[in-house]
Amino acid sequence: MNKKEILQKIKKIEIASNLLANEIFSGNYRSFFKGNGMEFSDIRRYSPGDDVKKIDWKVSAKQRKTYIKQFTEEREMSIYILVDISNSNNFPAKFDLISQLVGTIAFSAVKNNDKVGAIFFTDKIEQIIPVKKGKRQALIILDNLLSINPVSKGTNIENALHIFNKLSKQRSIVFLISDFIDTNYEKAINITKLKHDIIPIRIADKKFETLPSGAVFTFEDSESGEQIVVENFNTAKNISEEFPKTILSIYTDEDYIIKLANYFKRRRRIWKN
User: Fold this and answer.
1) Are 150 and 121 in contact (CB under 8 A)?
2) What are phi and psi of 219, to 5 degrees?
3) pTM here?
4) In the prediction, which pLDDT does 142 show?
5) Domain 3-32+76-272 belongs in CATH node 3.40.50.410
């Protein structure tokens, strides 16, 4: 893709993303994400009537007097988009869906005056774009995504999350976009959840989801070049069933707007109950 084609694609994604952001995040944008919307600012002596849940027990024990934590309303959020750009995501339909998702997330952050950054990864970190505000930042993220030539071919989600957790010092919203053709990433996701609100999104193609019964297939791994023989002599196997329910799967032939909108509405309902 040459520079002119990249710029045309960015413009197309920008126009579509601005419209879609309103549809997906209709209503209170911040209510779709975890957290109480408050950040720690200071401590002060406890006064009768203060919320006991805000008592800082460590400070109180050291000072031998009761202190409570003070909070201020969060004015902005930091949003990181972690994108798997390995060979298995390089098919046109999958990569097109990935770029549209990244554009929608980035421009949604811009519209709400939030900081947004990105990490592009394979089995190593290919590029880090630190969080910043503004439309130019969203355009930089898209430009780099569409023009990057990965050094490596494989996938290592665990390593990407490990680097992110070292990099991000404050609570962030993390969109993890991958086809999750990888292993040993569940623990890394759970560790990230302790501090951040992580939203894993699996990009999938239905053509490669079901293995019919009574068949033997030989696949070539697009990332390693290794040939793999898969035998399925029993019932038809659906690959999507092997993924945790906490991972949102979006297929290349689906309307991702509807999938995302429904997903975030479910999240908000769960937290309200």
Assistant:
1) no
2) -110, 150
3) 0.75
4) 93
5) yes
